Each structure stands twice: as C-alpha cells, then as structure tokens.
C-alpha cells in the first residue's frame, strides 16, 4: 500500500513488514498483526519481538481499536489520493506540488485550476464564492475575452465566434447568440449526424459492391463456360470497312450492341498488358465523327489510361486518379435510375471512381477504346465479358 506521506511506517507490523491486519497490543505496549504474534508465540517463548520482554503466562490479545481505525483511515486516504493523481490528458491542479492531483474545477477569475482540496476556499470564503467556476480546462487564458477580460461564455451565431457578456452589448449588439454549452452541443450533434451519414454512405457502397460480387459469384460457373466466347475488342489488322453513321471515324473505339434505358447492369473489361485504353458508357446519340470531347456534358462517362500509369476520369473538368496498383481487370456498374456509374478494381475490390447524379438521356451503351497499337507497345486487346443485367 502507498500510505499517506511519512506516516506509513507506523502502520507496519514488525514481523511481516506489511500494513497491520487486525492489530493487537502486547502488555509492553507494542503492536503486531494478531495472526503474526500468535504464530510467533506458537514457536517461540512468549516475549515481545521488539523489546524482548518475557511473559510467564501467554497474554490474552485484544484488538487495538484506535490503531485499527487509523489504519483504515490511512488506507482510505491513500486510495483517494491514488484515484485523484492526474493522469496523461487530465487537467492538473495548479496549486499542488508533485505529484499533482487531478483538477475538479477551473476558476475564470483566478485563471487557475484546483483539485478538490485546494478548491475548498472557493466554496467557503465569501469573496471567492463569487468567482465563476467551470469544468476543468487547460487553456484558461484562451477562455477570456481579450477586449473586456470577461469569460467567453456565449457564442455569436452571426460572426460564428465566442464572445463575452460585454461583447453582446457592444460589438455584437443585435446579433443572435446562444450559450457556449448550447453551441458546443449543437456542433457535437451536427458532427455526429455528419459522421453517421458518412458511415451510412460507406455502408451502402459496401453493400452495393457486395451485391455486385454476389451476382458475379452466382454467375461464375457460367462465366467460366463462356471464357472462350469472350470478345476481344479490335484486332491488330487495319481493315477497310464501309462508312456508317454508327461508326467512329477518327478514333479506335466502339459501343456495345446492348443498350439500356432503365435498371442496372454490369460488365468487366480485362486491361492487363495495355499502356492506353478508355472504357465506360456513352449515350446512344453521342457524336461519332470528327473530333470528340469525352465528358458527361457530351454524353460520355469514362475513365482512361495514358502512358502506362496516368489514370484519369473524363469528368467536367477531368479528374486525375491516383491508384495504389494498376488494375488488371475493371468492373463497370451502372444504375440508370440513380444516375450512377462506378468503376472497380476487380482483383482488390477497390472503388476507382464514381460518376454521380448523371443526367442520362435515352439509351446508354458500354463504350470501349483499346487505343492505337503504338508499334506493338499497346498490342494487348481489351477483353470484355457479356453484359449482365442485375435485379
């Protein structure tokens, strides 16, 4: 036990060297634990272990009630002191010497913090009783108004700042204000609401990805059987094809055959080994001739790779993407009704980018561009699976 101050030794039994347990007194006036002296006399002659006074008849021992009460009080004080000693993060009493005790109140007039013992004058002395006390804080000087030297106990809603009672009568006259406690509670509630909303969004996204993965797992066997039927987008041979209003003429790109004007659908594209590519979805009515601008405004919701490691989303304006690792296969999920287009790294399950609040007009189709061959540097094909409609 850590007894109070230097009084600890007077509460120790000289036999076991521990704090007295059921202390008793011998006829010579010395004190011992009842069990200790009894066991000592069971093996030795009846004499005092301290002064060696012998007793012809073994004395009858009685509990020293006064010493017993003193030991109990000392234990209680030690326990209270150990509980009140300040810990890292606690506000310390400014009056205590080491070890400093935990402060229970701070005074905005004295600009000091006090433990329970040193706070007593503020509770009993008439002059100090008028001082304003608050929950203990470290930054007391920051809690005082630099202009009027009064406690900052109000919050101005107009200027979004802490003010004192003089401020609201002068500089902040006619401004709506609330107590600092009420303002803190409001901000705490708003923060909790924001955190809850973000957690809900994360959970919804996680469930959405989970649902997509579940749909893929269910169709895995079918996908395995159809591996040989996967489509390679474009060959390396330049072909002479008749002109068509549906064909792009200045870029190596193509739209999927299946179109959508409602519901949700999903497809995957293998991009392994490529240095440049584009993929996503596009409006059926997009411009296909001449120079094309890739952005949602022009009916394209796509992401792209350039020069092996430069990823971006074709947003308004374009957004550079920082990926932890190059994706080998990209999943594209579209929710027509929610106006959502999301891209995922299939191997890691990470979200690459999402277009939200998309304004789809009419039918949309998958969009692919393997880009130019670049003398064999970008010869690997884009490989797509059949598009899946999700329930």
Overall description:
It is a single chain. By secondary structure, the protein is α+β, with helices and mostly antiparallel strands. The chain has helices at residues 34-43, 65-84, 120-124, 126-129, 180-218, 220-225, and strands at residues 23-25, 31-33, 105-107, 112-114, 133-134, 154-156, 161-163, 177-179, 231-233, 254-255, 264-270, 277-283, 300-306, 310-313, 319-321, 329-335, 340-345, 351-355, 364-369, 382-384, 388-390. The strands form 5 sheets. Strands 9, 11, 16, 17, 18, 20 and 21 form a 7-stranded antiparallel β-sheet that branches. Strands 10-19-12-13-14-15 form a 6-stranded antiparallel β-sheet, with no helix packed on it. The longest helix has 39 residues, at 180-218. Mean pLDDT is 83; it is low at 1-6. Residues 13-52 form the RING-type domain.
What would you call the shape? elongated
- Please tell me how large the radius of gyration is: 40 Å
Low-confidence runs of at least 5 consecutive residues = 1-6
Class from secondary-structure proportions: alpha+beta
Number of helices: 6
Mind sketching the topology for me?
Blueprint: E1 23-25, E2 31-33, H1 34-43, H2 65-84, E3 105-107, E4 112-114, H3 120-124, H4 126-129, E5 133-134, E6 154-156, E7 161-163, E8 177-179, H5 180-218, H6 220-225, E9 231-233, E10 254-255, E11 264-270, E12 277-283, E13 300-306, E14 310-313, E15 319-321, E16 329-335, E17 340-345, E18 351-355, E19 364-369, E20 382-384, E21 388-390
Antiparallel strand pairs: 1-2, 3-4, 3-5, 6-7, 6-8, 9-20, 10-19, 11-16, 11-20, 11-21, 12-13, 12-19, 13-14, 14-15, 16-17, 17-18
């Amino acid at each position: 036990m850590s007894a109070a101050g230097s009084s600890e030794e007077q509460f120790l039994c000289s036999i076991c060297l521990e704090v007295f347990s059921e202390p008793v007194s011998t006829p010579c006036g010395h004190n011992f634990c009842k069990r200790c002296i009894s066991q000592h006399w069971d093996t030795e002659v009846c004499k005092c272990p301290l002064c060696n006074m012998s007793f012809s008849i073994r004395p009858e021992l009685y509990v020293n009630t006064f010493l017993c009460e003193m030991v109990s009080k000392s234990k209680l004080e030690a326990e209270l002191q150990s509980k009140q000693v300040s810990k890292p993060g606690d506000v310390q009493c400014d009056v205590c010497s080491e070890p400093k005790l935990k402060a229970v109140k701070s005074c905005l007039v004295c600009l000091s913090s006090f433990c329970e013992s040193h706070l007593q004058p503020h509770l009993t002395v008439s002059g100090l009783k008028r001082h304003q006390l608050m929950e203990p804080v470290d930054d007391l000087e920051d809690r005082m108004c630099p202009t009027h030297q009064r406690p900052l106990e109000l919050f101005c809603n107009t200027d979004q700042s802490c003010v004192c009672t003089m401020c609201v009568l002068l500089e902040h006259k006619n401004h709506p204000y609330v107590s600092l406690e009420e303002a803190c509670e409001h901000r705490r509630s708003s923060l909790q609401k924001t955190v809850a909303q973000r957690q809900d969004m994360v959970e919804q996204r996680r469930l959405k990805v989970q649902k997509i993965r579940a749909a893929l797992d269910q169709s895995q066997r079918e996908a395995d059987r159809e591996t040989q039927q996967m489509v390679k987008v474009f060959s390396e041979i330049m072909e002479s094809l008749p002109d068509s209003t549906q064909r792009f003429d200045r870029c190596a790109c193509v739209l999927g055959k299946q179109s959508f004007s409602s519901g949700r659908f999903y497809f995957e594209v293998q991009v392994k080994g490529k240095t440049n590519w584009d993929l996503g979805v596009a409006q059926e009515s997009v411009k296909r001739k001449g120079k094309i601008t890739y952005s949602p405004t022009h009916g394209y919701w796509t992401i792209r790779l350039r020069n092996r490691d430069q990823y971006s989303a074709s947003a308004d304006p374009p957004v550079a993407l920082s990926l932890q690792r190059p994706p080998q296969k990209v999943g594209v999920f579209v929710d027509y009704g929610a106006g959502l287009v999301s891209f995922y790294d299939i191997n890691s399950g990470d979200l690459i980018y999402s277009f939200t609040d998309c304004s789809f007009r009419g039918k949309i189709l998958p969009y692919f561009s393997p880009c130019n061959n670049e003398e064999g540097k970008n010869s690997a094909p884009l490989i797509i699976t059949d598009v899946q409609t999700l329930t």
